Amino acid sequence: MNKTIAIFVTIAALLVAGGGGAWFYFSDGTSNATVETSNSAIEARGKNYYLALEPPFIVNFVYKDTLRYLQMTLSVMTHEPKILEQVTHHMPAIRHRLIMLISNKTFDELNGKDSKEVLREEMLFEIRNIIQAEQNKTHNPGRVEAVYFTGYVMQ
Q1: Are residue 41 and residue 83 in the same domain, yes or no?
Q2: Residue 4 is part of which domain span?
Q3: Same domain for 66 and 80?
Q4: Distances from the Cα of 97 to the Cαs of 30, 55, 74, 87, 100, in angstroms?
Q5: Could you tell me the pTM of the whole model?
Q6: Number of C-alpha atoms within 13 angstroms, CB side, residue 8?
């Protein structure tokens, strides 16, 4: 019985050491960290910090007398992780402003590469305005640098 336990412990130690060695060998040396903050994950990639705006945005619109839907997932990027804490804190206001912005668009304003880029810039402007109001109170430097579409489906 003691030999069985010793063999089991030895095998478990070898598996743990082998897994750690494989991770070290196959990792590319970059530091990618993920930190959970109130149901949202901040992901660090080098000097950029990303936050997924969850859950996905779902907005309806009318196209040719038919009710249609747009579902999009977004992420924001900054160089200051404290800015993402502000984004998380103000998520209800951000989601409200973005939903109102998107829902006032026509099909043509939501479709096409150039239209999506204009929409992306308008969303970035709205997010920056909300965060800027907070920064004026706390004097924190930094801003949201970009908004990225990570999913965009019109139906």
Answers
A1: yes
A2: 1-30
A3: yes
A4: 35, 15, 14, 13, 5
A5: 0.68
A6: 5
Instruction: Count the neighbouring beta carbons within 10 Å of the beta carbon of residue 77.
Output: 17
Which pLDDT tens digits describe the chain residue by residue (155 residues)? Answer: 555 544 443 444 444 344 444 333 333 443 444 444 444 566 767 789 999 999 999 998 888 888 899 999 999 999 988 899 999 999 999 999 999 999 988 888 899 899 999 999 999 999 999 998 766 665 556 789 999 999 999 98
Task: Tally the domains of the chain.
Answer: 2
Burial class (CB in 10 A: 0-12, 13-18, 19+), 128: middle
